[in-house]
C-alpha cells in the first residue's frame, strides 16, 4: 500500500501511526485477536510509530500492517491519499534488467517477452 502526503505532516497534525510487526499477525488470526503473543514485537513497544514526513512524501507499507490516523492537535486539516495495489498474476520472468547500467529501453522490452 502506498500513502501520499500532500503536506508536511508533523506530530501536531496527527500523522498516520503504524504498529511495527503487525503485518505478520495475519498469518495467525489468534495473534491479531491478541490471544497469542506476537514474537515480532518487543515487549516495550507499547505505542505506535508516527509517520512524520515532508510534503510530497510517499510511504510504502505492507497491506496487513495495523495503522491508524493519529490525534490531530492542530486547527489544520490533514490529508493523506491511500493507494492499494497488488499483482493480478505471478511474473513469469524478471521485469527488470540489471546488466545495463544505462537503463536502456530495450532491456525492458525484449522480443518474445
Please describe the topology of this protein:
Layout: E1 2-5, E2 16-18, H1 29-33, E3 49-50, E4 57-60, E5 67-69, E6 81-83
Antiparallel strand pairs: 1-4, 1-6, 2-3, 2-5
Describe the structure concisely.
Helix content is about 5%, strand content about 15%. The chain has about 110 residues and is mainly beta.
Structure description:
4% of the residues lie in helices and 17% in strands. With 113 residues, it is mainly beta. The strands form two sheets. It has a three-stranded antiparallel β-sheet with strand order 4-1-6, with no helix packed on it. Strands 3-2-5 form a three-stranded antiparallel β-sheet, with no helix packed on it. The longest helix has 5 residues, at 29-33. The radius of gyration is 19 Å and the shape is extended. The chain starts with a strand and ends in a 30-residue tail after the last strand. Residues 106-113 have low confidence and may be disordered.
Features of the shown structure:
single chain; 113 residues; mainly beta; three-stranded antiparallel sheet; extended; disordered C terminus
Question: SSE order, as H and E?
Answer: EEHEEEE
| Structural class by helix and strand composition | mainly beta
Radius of gyration, CA atoms, in whole angstroms: 19 Å
Rounded mean pLDDT is 76
Strand order in the largest sheet: 4-1-6
Q: What form results from the Cα inertia axes?
A: extended
Main sheet characteristics = 3 strands, antiparallel
Cα end-to-end separation: 28 Å
Number of helices: 1
Strand content: 15-25%
Q: Return residue spans where pLDDT drops below 50 for at least 5 consecutive residues.
A: 106-113
Portion in helices = under 10%
